[in-house]
Amino acid sequence: MLRFLRFSVVVIFLLDIAGLAPVARTYIEPSFAAVDGDIMYQWHRTDNDAEWKDFTVKYQGRDYCRDCHPDQYDRVTASKHTMIQCENCHGPAIEHPVNPQKLVIDNRRELCLRCHAKLPYRPAEYAELSTGPIPFKMKDPEEHNPGIECVNCHDVHNAGYKAF
Amino acid sequence: MKDKIMYETHNQTRREFLKLGAVTLVGGAIVTRLGIFDFLKPEAVAEITEGTGRRWGFVVDTTKCVGCGMCVQACKLENGVPFDSDVSRTWVERYIQKTDGEVIIDSPNLARDGFITNNPLGEQVPEEDIAKAFFVPKLCNHCDHPSCVKVCPVGATYKTTDGVVLVDREWCIGCGYCITNCPYGARFFHPILNVVDKCTFCYHRITKGMNSACVEACTFGARKIGDLNDPSSEVHKIVNTERVAVLRPHTHNEPQVFYIGLDHIVV
To answer: Residue A2 pLDDT more than 80?
Structure first.
């Protein structure tokens, strides 16, 4: 065993000085392999595939939200905002309600303007709804009630006006 | 006589030294070969034979993008790219060609907060001066022949069997060769981890049957991900029935992100 170890050290050392450090590291890291025999593009530490698969999912999708907020889910999915995911505006759920305990409620005009600001190069119609194309509502933020938060009048969850 | 003895001794030492050297080199070569032929190991063979034959591909329909930047925000938060840093795994570019032929390209804050004003590079462009204008979302192209992978000196970046180009964060030494060798500028240094970072197609999501975070966040259907080898996937249908293009085909990287509505002013 000791002889083998000494041999390994000599080999790694020699490979290192021969400018073959990567090869030496291959020798140290047993999971290195050229998958499919593809040395050019798939030579890597094969354990890493699984490490990336285990990366934490943070955006859970709206079905995750529905479990506790079915009322809001139903309102949004029945509205013209149905294509907008809850987490687009409220941020990633991660492990909500444990972590984070509260999600963001972003009332800034800038949030709505990401889609609704009037730009000459935005399409006139929105065609992603199953019910057919609708006019794409764009507003010039300088003219349309500047300084007032959109949610004062608009209910984003049903894409209409608030009931007063 | 004395000289001869010394000479012989010296000669013998040299012979022994050479012998040792040769043995070590041959031994080293064998060991090296063993390392490279690791793909013959049972587990590696199993990985090949049990492969699903999947090939992840992406479709970007630029005609649908309105530049809201929700994809960029979702990507950054999902993948732990510092939100206020000036790097991102995906971004959206705005192209404006004026009637006088001038082309303006910008991507304020990499479109993390969307495009909410008509002021490319701080300049107001009157509507009548615009000949054509559109948005182009960009991300890693997960090339079939990724030139970034080729130049990695330590084998820290690679293509998976299902066609996703990943970076091994433990193995990356941060030399940055891949960043300079990517024709699409899709790679960057992670500001906290100090290793190279890039789009993974949300490998942790797509391998669990979910969509990539940017695809999920896109309200306009401008982004689609799917299996190019599965005839029932939308991506397969679009790539095989519609007119699609790829960015910078002259690099022969064979990108797997296909675009609808590209234009010659797109770089």
So the answer is: no
